[in-house]
Amino acid sequence: MMLGLFKEDERPITRDQALIFARRLLISSLNKGSIPKWEDFLRELPSLISPDDLESVKSHFIRLTEWPFLENILDLGGTEFFFHSPETSQRLHLSGVKERVTVPLVQEDWQLWLEIISIHFNQNWNVENPFVSFYGELFGGHYRIGLIHASTSPLGVSKMILRSLAQKPHPLGAFGETSFIETLVKEKKNFLIAGSTGSGKTSLLTSLLQGCDPDEHIIILEDTYEILCTLDHQTRLLAGDSEKTSLKAYLSYSLRLTPDRIILGEMRSHEVVPFLMAMNTGHRGLMATIHSSSGIDALHRVAMLFGIYGNAQDLSYEKTMDLLCRNLEYVVFMENKKVKEVIKVLGSDKGVPFFENALGSNNADIFHL
Fold it and tell me: pTM of the predicted model, to two decimals?
């Protein structure tokens, strides 16, 4: 049977030829910044030999532009998904276990698929702008989506990382023993949640916020929207690219809003200064996350960041650590989505902090490291 999709006298082509033609046609549309609909795409195709060939071309088109295979992968569940290549992609369980998943694409379609995703979400992703991070909805779920362009890789392969944003906080029991930490929240202790990337810091912080007094005015500061909070009296500020919309500026401004608590999504640069100053001026119930390799390492990292971004040449590392240890009360350390330890900060001597294990160790002695 002949399918005259272009011209009646046009010479029919084979399925393989049609797939090559269709890929080129799709690339042409993408270069113009648009993703064609199947009905429009169909009009541009040459004649095909059989209905089965047409179905193969349509299936290939739908796979690249509507991603039914991605829906199947996301339905498996997971906190993060790492798309390295068709054969080496992974999903991360809440337990911290990674499992390999297979993406039903050939390598030559891999870049094309990711280009289509970037256009779908109106992202300027290319050689000159190789890293993009944005939020998007995929099949009813909400994700932070990161794209890394092939131009940055010696292998010339682009990657995508999806971080699932929970629609509701995880139950605290999912993070292990947390009753002690719940008490810290109720008593408005100042503490950090530390750990490596993907360790569960933000997820734990989100779940802990549900234990705050519902009458409190909570200010939440982030550079990317990740923290869920269902409490009524909250003020959220999302950082931008300018100095006036930075986390540092927001933190300074938030002190004038009579906050009952200040929650900082992630401490990594200039915002460390007003955060530490807020603790030093008597604000209670401050919480923040920070990247570190242990609970004690988190203290050293805060002191280091303050030294780098504080512009206080007369304030030594020793004095900074003393200021920190007099105002920060606990550090919660996360590993593989579980609370591994909680340390109680006791003080410091010549820049070296004193602490004791409040949770996660049978050794209750005071450590001087």
Answer: 0.74
